[in-house]
Amino acid sequence: MKRHERLISVTVLLLAWLLAGGCDESSGDGDSGIECPDEADPCPNDMVTDESGCVWDRCGGGFTGKRIPCFWTDPEIDRGEMEFAGDHGQYLAYIEKKEEYVYKGDVWLYDIELQERRRLTQDRLCYNLRAGGNRLGWLQLVKESEHYHDTDVVDAYVMDLESGQEWHVPNPLERQTVDLDMSGNLVITREMWMTTACPLGGKEIVRDLWLYDLTSGERRQVAAADPQSHVILGGRIADGMITYWKMTGPCADSVVNQLWVEDAAGEESRMLADTGNERPFAQSEYSFSFDGRWLVQLFGSYIDAFDVRSGESKRITRCSMSDCRLRGDAGLVAFDRYGEDGLTQRQVYVVEIETSKEQRVTDLRPYYDSSAPSGMVGNRLLWAERRGKNTIDDCGFEHRATGWTSMYFWKEIVF
């Protein structure tokens, strides 16, 4: 048979197959041997768009948690920064980002039980949310630096979510506040400033830690940076205890990797761990968690827990990679792990620190990109799931990507 005759025959057979029904969704019959719909996928065309324009997966997370509906004004913009808030995790705080800024904007609060939202700030440049019970804190840009080698002036603010009372945390040195945390009436802030103390000259960044009492208005330094020795990183407060890290300073002669704990009254300060020249403690926002007793820390790809009262430490589990995210409270720690259970997605797990018992929370399918814990209050966990790309299965069903817009879920964790 000649080449053009073979092409004609193939074309005729294909047209005949299509006219006969092709991949028949109801029967599942056909020369391809493909069954339609795929019995392994309970929702073959699962992406839907609700009345607010939010695209979500009606099956994603449906077996594992409660989906939080679309509540922001622009579904095309990922919130990026969210914080579980309230004394039992009844609120979700987030930033409605302004177009000209990558991650700054006004603070909003969503009640996940009543499904109502309200604006907390008006025309401000807020970011870096941090919750403590019924209080919510954030950083706010006050003045941008005129030169690239100088720091901005950034202040910290705290609001009571029930009464609406707002506090401005004093910044008398007009430094750039880079982090904050709170517990009751106490707020800790980490401030960044520039030094010229290094022998080679030029400006170097250092950071130190301050404590502010919202009731008394008292402000004191918890830990000071020494450019010749160390800078202060991290910084968390819970139940009257403060944790922070002393790390190698910009012009230090030796390596410093130390974990410290101090009571809020300033009466006792002691070192919990010193890793010396070994791999330093991870310092990203999601690499540690503190609930007043347990400081949970990512150390390489392992998750270690330090009892700040007894000084004891234990290795509780392992992430598959060193960039997994941690969120914890009340003796529980949520984290994401890649490639476990024969799966190729990042799944969210929760481990009980005392017993090292684990449970997997998410049940992602092959075309998901990842999931990650976003917050924990008590045993209530918030996590995000995001699909990475559009796919069309063999029967023509479309699986639409969520793109950069994550879907959020919550669940009460019980062991």
Structure description:
- The protein is mainly beta.
- The chain has a domain at 32-63 and 282-415.
- It is built from one helix and 32 strands.
- A four-stranded antiparallel sheet has the order 3-32-29-28, with no helix packed on it. A four-stranded antiparallel sheet has the order 4-5-6-7, with no helix packed on it. A four-stranded antiparallel sheet has the order 8-9-10-11, with no helix packed on it.
- The protein starts with a helix and ends with a strand.
- Mean pLDDT is 77; it is low at 1-32.
Shape from CA axes?
globular
Structural class: mainly beta
% residues in beta strands: over 45%
The first-to-last residue Cα distance is 69 Å
Mean pLDDT: 77
Low-confidence stretches: 1-32
Radius of gyration: 26 Å
Number of strands: 32
Put simply, the count of helices is 1
Q: Profile the largest sheet.
A: 4 strands, antiparallel
Helix content: under 10%
The side-by-side strand order for the widest beta sheet comes to 3-32-29-28
